[in-house]
Write a structure and sequence with these properties.
- By secondary structure, the protein is an alpha+beta fold.
- It has 2 domains: about 90 residues; about 230 residues, Bira Bifunctional Protein, Domain 2 (BirA Bifunctional Protein, domain 2), CATH 3.30.930.
- Helices cover about 40% and strands about 20% of the residues.
- The strands form 2 sheets. Strands 1-4-5-9-8-7-6 form a 7-stranded mixed beta sheet, with helices on both faces. The protein has a two-stranded antiparallel sheet with strand order 2-3.
Length: about 350
């Protein structure tokens, strides 16, 4: 009876093994026949305890022999399919060493970095040094030392991004001029490019984080004419030798007198176009002579020394130079956009 059962199992396994055509099917065959819980041979092993000792010994030997046959056949099938899979993988991944290599694409500088380096190069060639300062400031550096009164709207939480313990993200790079004048005595000429923060709603022309460059010169007998000559030379080097400047009266707490500076449109030469909105002029930034109270805040005698300061928006200048409709493109990290700039 047991011998007939073994022959039936052997024939059944041979028939099933003959129809196996994939590695997954071979794995399923192994589970069906030798799986620990529901394998056919496993189930037969569990019936040995019900047999008499003599029959159990003989049937057990034959059953183990059949299991060895099944294990061997399944291992042969899996080995064959595995070898075939590896051979196919080698064909797919084969490298043709006769083909020319692929050139790796090189990184590009961000357009803001390109503009910042260009501005720095111009001012360094004019005798200025580059200063840096913290982006988190106290009220003294962000407002008090810059002659910004407690009632000024710029000090409200609607404009300034305040942190804990009375600290705030700097709202202009003018804070760096205070640090510079504390560390160094006149005469000094510095520019301070960097990030600044204001509570703005992002749109095509505004961002809560943007880049500025602050300029400062302090020496004896500095006049408004020195400021005009410096910014005039800057725009000529930046936008072309025919670029003109004009100064419009304005107000800033840290300069007196103060002026907004415009330059003639580099695109149309002043005739009027889309970039300059038909006016022929583009706003450069704010400027003026350093207020005496700012000099007093850093222990510099305004009776002996004077100076001028100016602030330029790098993002705005970058958007105009590269004809961008939306400055948010500068911060979206889209490689397709950034790879256009060199």
């Amino acid at each position: 009876m047991e011998a007939e059962r073994l022959e039936q199992l052997r024939a059944q396994f041979s028939a099933e093994a003959a129809g196996i055509d994939s590695e997954s099917a071979a794995s399923a065959l192994r589970d069906r026949w030798t799986g620990r819980k529901s394998g056919l041979l496993t189930a037969e092993m569990k019936t040995l305890g019900k047999l008499s000792p003599d029959v159990r010994r003989e049937f057990g030997l034959q059953l183990n022999a059949l299991k060895d046959e099944v294990d061997g056949r399944i291992a042969e099938l899996l080995s064959g399919f595995g070898a075939r899979r590896e051979a196919e993988q080698l064909v797919r991944e084969r490298i043709d060493v006769t083909l020319p290599g692929r050139r790796q694409s090189s990184g590009r500088l961000h357009p803001i970095t390109l503009m910042r380096e260009r501005i720095e190069e111009i001012f360094v060639s004019m005798g200025y040094t580059i200063e840096d300062g913290p982006e988190i400031e106290t009220d003294f550096y962000n407002f008090d030392a810059l002659n910004i009164p407690p009632s000024h709207p710029a000090r409200s939480s609607q404009d300034t991004l305040y942190l804990e313990n009375g600290l705030a993200l700097r709202s202009q790079t003018s804070t760096v001029q205070i640090h510079a004048m504390q560390r160094r005595r006149p005469p000094l000429r510095v520019i301070a490019p960097g990030r600044v923060y204001r509570r703005d709603t992002p749109d095509a022309t505004h961002n809560p984080m943007f880049f500025q460059v602050e300029g400062l010169l302090v020496d004896r007998r500095v006049t408004l004419g020195d400021l005009k000559g410096t910014l005039g030379e800057f725009v000529r080097r930046m936008f072309g030798p025919g670029t003109r400047t004009r100064f419009r009266p304005s107000y800033f707490p840290f300069t007196e007198p103060s002026a907004e500076v415009d330059y003639s449109c580099f695109k149309c030469g002043g005739a009027g176009c889309r970039i300059c909105k038909g006016s022929g002029w583009i706003e450069l930034g704010g400027s003026g002579l350093v207020h005496p109270n700012v000099l007093r805040a850093v222990a510099i005698d305004p009776e002996e020394f004077s100076g001028f300061a100016f602030g330029l928006g790098i993002d705005r200048m970058c958007g105009l130079m590269y004809d961008l409709d939306d400055i948010r493109l500068l911060y979206e990290n889209d490689a397709r956009f950034l790879e256009q700039f060199r």
